[in-house]
Amino acid sequence: MNTSLKLLAAALGVGLSAIRLQANEANYQHYILGDRAAGMGGAACAIANGVEAVYYNPAGLAGTPRDSLSLSANLYGFQKFTEENAFLPGEDFESDSFQSIPSSVGGTLRASPDWVLGFGVFVPFRNTIFDGATYPADRHYYSVAIDNQTMWAGPAVGWQATPRLSLGLSVFGAYQTHSSLMNFYWGDEALAYTRDIAYSSLGLVGVLGVQYRLTDRLRLGATLTSPCQNLTGEGNVTENIVSGSAGGESQSEVADYQELDAENGAPASFRVGLGWGSEREFLLSADVAYHLARTFDPLSGRSPEGEPVAVTQHHEEVLDFSLGAEYYFRRKFPVRAGFFTSHSSAPDPEVDQTDEPGQIDLYGVTATVGVETKNASSNIGLNYLWGEGRALGWGTDSHGEVVNTLSDSNETHLYLVFNTQYYF
């Protein structure tokens, strides 16, 4: 492969492969938040109460038996990601990273017999990759660092409208941060490339919820979540390519995009849930979540020359499912298990769509055990997710030239879940 082809590949897309390594930003559930929900696959729309109701269904706040404070709901675990031909044909990328996620904290307060107030801070998405790849035969060296996080924080209220019907509302400030840095060096062509991206955005998300008891053992739940309404966002992108020559001279090209607008593209969604059973005995639950399609610009603005530039992404509609079960031993020791899906909202990968993330459908299982006393509850367990799909990579055509192609990708996640809640 000659220098001009490699330089063209670098300028037009090798750096984008590193950005696409965060493929699961197109998946809406990467681990399960909450206390009970963390063990029941997130199937909490019809049964949520306490602090986790602020996130899953604010109508459930009305059913919170006492004031509560959730001091810790944390995830500790490992994420593994692999993509074939991520950098060049035959040059794969594999990353193993440790994750520590303070996933939620909050509290509830009964303001009157029919009204309960709540507040919560939740981290529904966190993705970090810090790794590299080395191919000594061609003297190719790569390093990738990605840190991407979304945090929701805000108040909620639940109202017991009738003995069987409760309504609720949550309003969140949605804060998203992203930073990614990729460096590579091709020693055989004396070519170095750096790409640095950093942006953050702040928006508002509202959740309307309802829970209804059909019978003493059967209950329904539903929520409507608004699309993220962006308030402000800013980002920067810097690219630098340095190439050498046989005469020892070097050439450098820099593209520096400052003060770009950043946007959180979280779409509207609907969720319905069904719960059957008795509290502190045996309970089954199931949720269906429908996420609408949305097209947005994660970054947009003007180039240093004043020309309009934008990275446009399209998220397709997605249908996800959650199932959960709960059983109490001696009405004191809860054992929970669940299953959930997290299908990718990314479009089917195409070789000419370099702005879109890879498409990896995820599937997860959860399990927790706990203990409850008069004034506190604690749970510990595991979340395990796995999935595979396709992403944009690199191959060669019949003439031996480097071209975009589709490559296999897969990822797995294993988290230790721990949470504690106090009642007053």
Short structural summary:
The protein has 424 residues and is mainly beta.
Task: Describe the overall structure.
- The protein has 424 residues and is mainly beta.
- Helices cover 5% and strands 67% of the residues.
- The chain has 2 helices and 18 strands.
- The chain has a 14-stranded antiparallel β-barrel.
- The protein is elongated, with a radius of gyration of 24 Å.
- Residues 1-23 have low confidence and may be disordered.
List the helices and strands and how they pair.
Elements (H helix, E strand, L loop, with lengths): L2 H18 L31 H5 L11 E21 L2 E22 L2 E21 L4 E21 L4 E22 L4 E23 L4 E8 L3 E16 L5 E13 L6 E10 L3 E10 L2 E9 L5 E8 L2 E12 L3 E10 L16 E14 L3 E21 L5 E22 L1
Key features of this structure:
single chain, 424 residues, 5% helix, 2 helices, disordered N terminus
Question: Which overall shape is indicated by the principal axes computed on the Cα atoms?
Answer: elongated
Number of strands: 18
Which sheet architecture does the biggest sheet show?
14 strands, antiparallel, barrel
Q: Give the DSSP E fraction (strand runs of 2 or more residues).
A: over 45%
Q: Helix tally?
A: 2
Name the strands of the widest sheet in spatial order. Answer: 1-2-3-4-5-6-7-10-11-14-15-16-17-18
Distance between the termini: 70 Å
Q: What is the chain-wise order of helices and strands? A: HHEEEEEEEEEEEEEEEEEE
So what's the oligomer here? single chain
Rounded Rg: 24 Å
- Structural class, judged by helices and strands? mainly beta
The stretches of 5 or more residues where confidence is low (pLDDT under 50) are 1-23
Mean pLDDT: 87
* Helix content percent band: under 10%
